[in-house]
Structures are given as structure tokens and as C-alpha cells.
Amino acid sequence: MSFNTHSEYGPVLMNDDPTNKNVTLASRVTRPFLLALGWVAVGLGVFGVFVPGLPTTPFLLIALWAFSKTSKRFHDWLYNHPRLGPPLRDWRQHGVIPVWAKILAIATMSISLLWIIFGIAEDWVLPAVVAACLVPPAIFILTRPSQPR
User: Fold this and answer.
1) Residue 140 belongs to domain spanning
2) Do 101 and 83 share a structural domain?
């Protein structure tokens, strides 16, 4: 197993040399799993572009992370993509969540909670648990900057 220490994104597991005797069983299992996770996340992210309420950027961030551990080529492709790359670069460089994304995220969470309260729940337990799970991400989203500083 070798690490590409030249990446600005941290160590990248490079397992491309089949003659490398130092490749461990864990890396032979981890790398394909992370590559698959990355591509599934890219697929869900692209699907989210067309499906209202399905987030795009969080899935692409997961893909970017998975690719950063396995494939510099796929990582750079996604990070520099003309359509998918800008929100990833904004997040990485400035921690920015655009206002429209904040509104969409909070609205989706609110509608989901209201649906559970008025359409599904028979008592207060389920809405309380869901609200407890939704409030921390909502606070996180709302406290991020909306524009680069």
C-alpha cells in the first residue's frame, strides 16, 4: 500500500500497482468499497439535481471524500467538474452554503416533520425523536456563511 502524500486533500490510498507486496487485505477491500461508495454518491447527487427535496451537494461531498481516499483522477474530475464542482469548491474553500440551499434544506426538514406530526404519528414520541434529529443539522446549516468572506 502506498500513499500519495502530494495531495492537498490528505493521504490518498493508491493501490494501482498489482506487484506491490505491501498491499494489505484491508486496502484490497476498502478501496473498491470506497470507489463504489463514491460512484453511488455521485449517482444520487446527480439524481438529486432533478428530484426536488433530494440533496445534491451532501452526496457529492461524500463522493469527493471517498475519491480522495482512492482515486486522485476521480477526485479531480468531480472537484473540477463545470456543473458539480462549484458548490464543492465553495464548501471546501469557504464553508459556504448558499441561501437557496439553506431555504430548501430547512423547508424540506420542516415539511417532513409536519408530515410526521399530522400524517403519521399517533403520539408525541416519533415527532419528538425526529425533531431531535433534525434540529442539530438545521442549526449547523443556518450557522454556515452564505457567501465567501
Assistant:
1) 95-149
2) no
- Residue 95 φ/ψ, nearest 5 degrees: 65, 35
Full-model pTM: 0.67
Spatial distance between the Cα atoms of 106 and 42, rounded to a whole number of angstroms: 23
pLDDT in tens, 49-108: 888 777 888 899 999 999 999 999 999 999 999 999 998 998 899 999 989 889 988 998
Which residues lie below 8 Å from residue 20, measured CB to CB, with a gap of 6+?
1, 2
Classify the C-alpha dihedral 89-91-93-96 as positive or negative.
Answer: positive
pLDDT digits (tens, 9 = 90+) for 59-72: 999 999 999 999 99
Q: Say whether both 108 and 138 belong to one domain.
A: yes
